[in-house]
Structures are given as structure tokens and as C-alpha cells.
Amino acid sequence: MLRKAVIFASLPLIASCATPAGQANVSREQLDFYQVETAKPYDEVLAELEIAIAEHNFRITGHSRVGKVIRDRGAKDFPEYDTVQFCNLTLAKTVLEITPHAIGYMPCNVVTYQFGGKTIVRTHLLPEDGDNPELNEFAATMNRQLKQIVDFAAEQ
């Protein structure tokens, strides 16, 4: 009796691991990243990043100072780690009209962190080789802007 109860109680868990009907052909895209290293002081990189984002007509929607918060909680020598999210609503509308599935690429995100005595500036790039030519064109244009933002922030 107990065995039947355990089996019956486990069915929802087992069912949740199955692939939902119609989902077998869902594409899984691997995101590429663009990364630059610089010896420029970390705070200057962050300041330049904010300037570059604004100059490309994006608005910062979030800034997480992960390293600072961890240090504030007692890890005195913890390195810098930041994520900056940004968006342009006109571009967001454009890409979502191309495909609503592009919501996974928003907002744009740049991470900065310290590693090996350098500051790393990194962003994910949108895939340019999908089945939708209009989305590929949008991605190529967006990727150029993302690279320019990263390069400006890291530039000595």
C-alpha cells in the first residue's frame, strides 16, 4: 500500500521531467560573447560604460553591484563584479514585432569584473545565423552596437 502511494505521489514529478507535446523541436541557441580586457581602473570602466550606453540611445534599466554587496556583507577583499542592463524601447518593439521569442535577449546586458589584475568587459551577442533573415539583420546591427559599447568602456 505504501509503495503504491509513493508511486502515485511521484507521478507529477516524473511528468514534469517529460518534454511537453509540441516542444520536441524547440531550438536551443548558444549565445556568443564579446569580451575585452583592460588595465584601465575599474571605476573608470563603469563610468565609460554608462556614457557609451547613453550615447547609443539606450537607457540603463538595472545595475547590480554584486562585488560591492558581497564586500559589504563582510568579504573584505572580494573583487569587483557588476552587471549593467539597458534597453531602447524602440528597438525592443522592433525586435519583438519580428518575433516575440526575442524577449529572451532583453534587456541588453554588460558585465564587468576583475580577474588576473585586469578588468573584463563582456556582453552576449545575439545569434545572426537563425532561420529568420529579418532577425539576423537586426542581430547584426545590434551586435555592432554592443561591441562598440564594450570597446568604448575598455578603451585606454
From TrEMBL:
Keywords: Signal. Pfam families: DUF302. Residues 69-123 form the DUF302 domain. Residues 1-24 form the signal peptide. It comes from the Bacteria. PROSITE patterns: PROKAR_LIPOPROTEIN. This is DUF302 domain-containing protein. It comes from Methylomonas rivi.
